[in-house]
Amino acid sequence: MRSSRKSRAASLSVASNTLLTAGKLAAGIVTGSVGIIAEALHSGIDLVAALIAYFSVRISDLPPDRDHPYGHGKAESIAGAIEALLIVVAAVWIVYEAIDKLVHGAAVEMLGLAAGVMAVSAAANLAVSRYLLKVAREEDSLALEADGQHLATDVYTSAGVACGMAAVWLSGWDWLDPLAALAVAVLIGVIGIKLVRNATQQLMDHGLPEAEQAAIRAILEAEPRVLSWHRLLTRKAGSQRYVIVHAVFPADISLREAHAVTDALECRIAEQFAPAHVTIHQEIDGEEACGDGQTSE
User: Fold this and answer.
1) How far is residue 70's CA from residue 251's CA, in Å, rounded to a whole number?
2) Could you list the residue range(s) of the whole structural domain that residue 84 is in?
3) Does any domain span residue 295?
4) Taking 70 as the threshold, does the pLDDT of residue 294 lie above it?
5) Are residues 195 and 251 in the same domain?
6) According to the model, what pLDDT value does residue 290 have?
7) Can you tell me whether residue 23 is helix, strand or coil?
8) This model's pTM is above 0.90
């Protein structure tokens, strides 16, 4: 089942981030590295994001009810927005701490331990993030995608901090550690802003991507008994797509035949973009319909 698979993926992320956050925080306190502490905060944010993703995917898979006739898919959009905002907040905090260390100075100790923690973190996050992003693509889950992107950035940021540790060890310049933390913050901030934009589009009922709308138009135009179509409206909530369109039939078509054609078109579109809810309104050529919108050529 889709829900059980997404829940298992989210549970793996929670477990992984719990262990990594604890390990990085301990190493950061022992070594005094602001870079590792920054990474611990990043993993802590990822842990919160993983918990949000876990609960959101369980909620989003609940069936429609009287209070939520369109289902609960927006739970993933809300979760994605919260996760993205947490990333941005983390980036701002890291910048503040790194600048403070640059101004006042701070020595980094036990560089071998620091580098080892970062290497383990990068390896673990690489494996978990690949799995999460794979499930997110196959299940079309925004919440899991955001969670996977968090862990993917950890791979690069952990490598960046490790490089900072190596640079401090080779040069003796402790200021290279907070400089590496600043690079981590920039990368985190960019990812966060991108995720904010993606989540906001779903919350604002942004239309489906142009490629998907083009595929819907192709299905409509391939049906010879549909003279034209208009008012194509699309949106997405979680992994569920919603499509509404008005199809114009010739005046001499029977109601039974028009209904059969409509059912076939709805099934064709729904199957191509599953899970999808498709509604096609039937209109007769020459009859005036209220409203306007996107129209076929």
Assistant:
1) 33
2) 2-203
3) no
4) no
5) no
6) 56
7) helix
8) no
What's the domain count of the chain?
2
Judgement on whether residues 41 and 105 belong to the same structural domain of the protein: yes
Domain shared by 153 and 263, yes or no:
no
Burial class (CB in 10 A: 0-12, 13-18, 19+), 271: exposed
Question: Per-residue confidence at 57, pLDDT binned at 50, 70, 90?
Answer: confident
Looking at 203, 233, 251, the residue that finishes a domain is 203
**Domain for residue 297, yes or no?**
no
Residue 121 CA to residue 20 CA, distance in Å, equals 6
Residue 248 sits in the same domain as residue 192 = no
Q: Is 64 helix (H, G, I), strand (E, B) or coil?
A: coil
Which of 203, 238, 255 is the last residue before a domain boundary? 203
* Same-domain pairing of 50 and 117: yes
Other beta carbons less than 10 A from residue 62's beta carbon = 13
Least Cα distance to 137 among 6, 283, 269 occurs for 6
Burial of 254 (C-beta count, 10 Å sphere; 0-12/13-18/19+): exposed
**CA 271, CA 12: separation in Å to the nearest integer?**
30
What is the model's pLDDT at position 106? Answer: 59
What is the pLDDT of the chain when averaged over all its residues?
81
Is 3 a residue whose pLDDT tops 70?
A: no
CB 39 within 8 A of CB 151: no
Provide the pLDDT for residue 109.
Answer: 57
